[in-house]
Amino acid sequence: MDVREWLERVRAQRWGMVVDLAFAVAWVTMVHALFLVLDGPDWAYYGFMLAGVVAYFGFMGSLERARADRERSNE
Question: For residues 52 and 27, is the Cβ–Cβ distance under 8 A?
Fold first, then answer.
């Protein structure tokens, strides 16, 4: 893959990357703030961080289903 191809791919996925980054920052900030207040054990902290991966794919999957349903209803 040359540089031009790579740049085109990044430009095409620009908003997807921004949404991914925003979700990651929001999740990590929320978990960190929660554990600052609750002072929970480390294993729970890392468990919540790992749960962010599951939450991300669940959120994105439901978002894609909602978009597909909306497109089907507009036809």
Answer: yes
CA distances from 46 to 15, 21, 33, 65 (A): 28, 19, 13, 29
For residues 30 and 6, is the Cβ–Cβ distance under 8 A? Answer: no
2: Cβ contacts below 8 Å, ≥ 6 apart:
none
List pLDDT tens digits, range 21-46: 888 899 999 999 999 998 889 899 99
The amino acid present at 61, given as its one-letter code, is G
Please say whether the beta carbons of 27 and 56 come within 8 A: yes
3-state secondary structure of 52: helix
Q: For residues 35 and 45, is the Cβ–Cβ distance under 8 A?
A: yes
* Contact status, residue 31 vs residue 45, Cβ threshold 8 Å: yes
